[in-house]
Automatic annotation (TrEMBL):
InterPro entries: Cyt_c-like_dom, Cyt_c-like_dom_sf, Cyt_c_1A/1B. Residues 48-149 form the Cytochrome c domain. GO terms for molecular function: electron transfer activity; heme binding; metal ion binding. The lineage of its organism: Bacteria, Pseudomonadati, Pseudomonadota, Alphaproteobacteria, Sphingomonadales. The keyword DNA repair does not apply. Keywords: Electron transport, Heme, Iron, Metal-binding, Transport. This is Cytochrome c domain-containing protein.
């Protein structure tokens, strides 16, 4: 009995170590493995980890504040951006004609296309950002942005 309990402890410890080692990247490898071979956009959305998305926003934060009332920097304040019409995050910001021409609202799908490759969605946009190639990273980022201002 005691020996069994000991084995249980070792297993629990191994599981804990696995969980902790996954923390740094939001358990990305595990989440990716669980997605299977041909994940859909909905699959990525379901697997999204907003805590990891918060860290990924560091790539945006140099240009974009994301808090109520914050002044625009190189880019507009993105607080509450999800669901808003495109090019309306800030009333003061001077958007490019390219972005204004996109139209519609910031759905998760549109945000995914934008963050993947801004110049593909809006050629000649003034957002100087190369994009995030990994769909799971984009899903993480969008899941976090959805929590900022809703
Ligand atoms: C080098 C500065 C810079 C970086 C880095 C940057 N952006 Fe931007 N962003 C801009 C600028 C400038 C615009 C306005 C683009 C235009 O008008 O064409 C913009 C516009 C946007 C908009 C449209 C806002 C609206 O009102 O519709 C979104 C959404 C956005 N950025 C998200 C992001 C995200 C998410 C990241 C990080 C993954 C990011 N940006 C990284 C500068 C930046």
């Amino acid at each position: 009995m005691t020996a069994m309990r000991g084995v249980g402890c070792v297993i629990a410890l191994a599981a804990l170590t696995l969980t902790l080692s996954g923390c740094g990247d939001g358990g990305r490898a595990e989440r990716r493995a669980a997605l299977g071979p041909n994940p859909t956009f909905a699959d990525y959305r379901k697997a999204a980890d907003p805590a990891h998305g918060a860290r990924l926003f560091n790539a945006c934060a140099g240009c974009h504040p994301i808090s109520p009332g914050a002044l625009d920097r190189g880019g507009p304040n993105l607080f509450g951006i999800m669901g808003k019409p495109v090019a309306t995050a800030s009333r003061r910001f001077g958007y490019s004609g390219a972005l204004r021409a996109v139209g519609g609202r910031w759905t998760p799908e549109l945000m995914d296309r934008w963050v993947a490759d801004p110049r593909k969605l809006a050629p000649r946009t003034s957002m100087n950002f190369q994009g995030i190639g990994d769909p799971l990273d984009r899903a993480d980022l969008i899941a976090w942005m959805e929590t900022q201002g809703r």
